[in-house]
Amino acid sequence: MTYSSKPTLAAPELFVQQAYINGEFVSAKSGKTFEVTDPASLEKIGVAPELELEELRGAIDAASAAYKELKNTTGRQRARWLRKWYELMIEHQEDLAKLITWENGKILEDAQKEVAYSAGFFEWFSEEAPRTYGDTIPSAVPGNRMFTLKQPIGVAGIITPWNFPAGMITRKVGAALAAGCSVVVKPAAETPYSALALAVLAEKAGIPKGVFNVVTAHENTKIFGKELCENKIIKKVSFTGSTPVGKILMNQSSSTLKKLSFELGGNASYIVFEDGDVNAAVEAALPAKYRGNGQTCVCPNRFFVHESVYDEFSTKLAASVAEHYKAGHGFDTASTLGPLINSAAVDKVEAHVKDAVSKNATVLTGGSRLPELGPNFYAATVLGNVTPEMAINREETFGPLIPIMKFTSEADVIERANSVDVGLASYFFSKDVARIYRVAEALEFGMIGVNTAMISEPALPFGGIKESGFGLEGSKYGIEEYLVKKTVVVGGVHQI
C-alpha cells in the first residue's frame, strides 16, 4: 500500500462518528463534537460526540438494565459471543489496523499486530468464561458443608488510553463479558474510532443491547472519570494510564469502595550482563523499544549494560537503529517509525535528550526532531554515556529514545534498576541459570523478561507492582478481577 493520509476501508461502516449507548449509535444531545486528527499529517479525521454527564449516566443505566439479564446467562453463551466477536475482528483485521494507524499514528504493520493481539483476548476469555470454578471446603463442624461460588461483580467502568486503542479495550472487556459484567467504555479522546468499530462488530456478534457501551468526550474527560468512580451503579473500574491520574481515580473511588484494577506508568529496565548474548540483546531491543513509536508502558526505558560488553552493545545497537528505522506516515510502506501522538510527547523526548547531552551524554544516532515530516516526528535515537543524574532515569520518556548506561556488578545494577517508584516490566539477558533465578527474584517489577523483551500475550498475567498499580489483566487471573466470591455454609447435613 502506498502512502495515503485517508485510508479506504473494505467495510466503511466500521468508521463511526457517534457514541454507542444501549445498542444505538447516538450523537450528543447538545450537538457538540470534538475533532480527531491524524498525528502524522495533522489532518482532520473526523469528529466524535462531546457527551455530557447526563448522557454518561444514561449509558450507565443502560448497562445496569442489561446486567440484570446478562448475569443470568451461562458462561457457555458468553463464550459464543466472545468467540464470534474474535472471528469478526480477524475478518476485519486490515480495516481495524487502518483505523488504528489513522488515529494513533503507529505504522500499519504495528497496527495489524495490535489487532491480532487484541482479538486474542476475546478468544482467550471465550475459553475462560465457562470455567469460573468455586471450591468445596471441609468444615470443622460436623453436619456443616461449605462451598464457594463466583458471580459477576456488576457494571464495570473501563477507561482506556490512546497507545493501544483496541488492545486496552479487548483485554478488559473480554474478561468483563466472560465474567458476566456489562461495561461502559470511555476511550481516549485522541483515538475513539477503534472503540466504535468494536461496537459495530459487537452488534454483528450478537452482544445484547446495553452490555457494551462506548461514551466519548474530550472536554468532559475528567468529569466522566470522576462519575465512573463515584457512581454507585458502577461496581468496578479498570484504568490504564499514568500513575498521577491513577491516584486521582483511586481517591475518587474511595466513597463507594469500588473494586479497582489499575495498570499505570512504567520505567522499564533492560539489563545486559557480561555473560548475556549481545547480539540477541540488540535484536530484541529494537521491536521492544520502537514498536508503537516507543509509546508503550512496557517499553524498555533504561538500558544498563555491563562495562565489559558496553562498547560492543552500544556500537551494534546504534548501527541497527540507524539501519532499520525510517520515520514517516504509518500508511507509507517505507516507514518503520511513525509519529508521536502529539507535540507535547515530542517535547518530552527532546527535553530528555537535551538534558542528557548537557550532562555529557553522547548521541550515537538520531537525537533530533524531523520537522520536514511534521511537528510530531522525532528520530529513533540512541544515547551513550548516560549517567544516573539525568532526567531519563527518573522519568518515563514514552518515545523513541534509548539511553545506555554502564554498570559494574550484579548488586549495583539491581539497586539501580529498582531505584524507581514504579514496577511494571523489566528485562535482562544472561546465560547463567543461577543468575536468572536470582535476578528475576530480586527485580521489583511485576513482569520479567529473561533473554526476551516481547512478553505480552493473552496468557500472560499482565500487571505491575509498586506505583505501577494492581490487579492483573489477561491470563486465567484476568476474569477474577470481575468476579466476587461468595461462601455458602449448609448446616444440618447428617451422616447416614
From TrEMBL:
Its EC number(s): 1.2.1.16
Residues covered by the Aldehyde dehydrogenase domain: 25-488
Pathway it works in: Amino-acid degradation; 4-aminobutanoate degradation
Residues that span the membrane, as ranges: none
Catalysed reaction, written as an equation: succinate semialdehyde + NADP(+) + H2O = succinate + NADPH + 2 H(+); succinate semialdehyde + NAD(+) + H2O = succinate + NADH + 2 H(+)
GO MF terms held by the record: succinate-semialdehyde dehydrogenase (NAD+) activity; succinate-semialdehyde dehydrogenase (NADP+) activity
Superkingdom of source: Eukaryota
Keyword Transmembrane helix: no
Keywords, ordered alphabetically: Oxidoreductase
GO biological processes: gamma-aminobutyric acid catabolic process
InterPro entries the UniProt entry points to: Ald_DH/histidinol_DH, Ald_DH_C, Ald_DH_N, Aldehyde_DH_dom, Aldehyde_DH_Superfamily, Succ_semiAld_DH
GO cellular component term of the entry, any: cytoplasm
Keyword Translocase: no
EC class (word): oxidoreductase
Similarity-based family: Belongs to the aldehyde dehydrogenase family.
PANTHER family: SUCCINATE-SEMIALDEHYDE DEHYDROGENASE, MITOCHONDRIAL
Protein name: Succinate-semialdehyde dehydrogenase
Organism encoding this protein: Geotrichum candidum
